[in-house]
What we know:
The chain is mostly helical. The chain is built from 6 helices and 2 strands, in the order ααββαααα. A two-stranded parallel ribbon has the order 1-2. Helix 1 (15-35) packs across helix 2, helix 2 packs across helix 3 and helix 4 runs antiparallel to helix 5. The longest helix is centred in the first third of the chain and has 34 residues, at 39-72.
Amino acid sequence: MSTETKNTWHRPDPSFTYLLAFFMLLTGLAWGIWKLNSPSKIIRLALFYVFIHFLAVSLLVATVAYFFVGRLLGPGIAGLPGRRRQQGLFVQAEDREQLEFGYCFDVAIRAFFPVWVLLYVTQFILWFFISKQNLVSRFFGNTIYLAAFGYYFVISFLGYNTLPFLHHTQFLLSPLLGCGILWFASLFGVSIPQLLMPAFVWG
């Protein structure tokens, strides 16, 4: 995910964030033109995609990770081996074993990329196929969501697994089991794309 430079693991390069925000803006315009009937609603949806779906959600995930990953992923967990470490927004030269908020945000941003590809682009292109009321369409539609969330958790795991002072990061992969169970259960009558469609056109 990143390498250690200047006593920090966080790489202050916002270019990827700007690029993905631009792609989200274009995607929001496409969804708006398809589903909405007024220019103001289309623009509002596009901005909603950028500032709520992308940035706000990424900030929320980064905040949760910043306060919980460093405390819940050993060392420092009762019964699990390892040293207890500190956290901080800024890293001192003499103490590099800290989880930074900027790094958490980097992980969240990069993990969002496959979500954008699968849920905002691929779902848009394949909507008329995956929205049909049959098992094949439901299988492919629900699998898109399984792949999107699966990639999100795997990339998040890889990002935190890079930090040598974090241990037991494999626990970040545990949501994959829940995703698999929900995906299998949904095949018996629940179309996830149709269920979550309002979230893509409300803004």
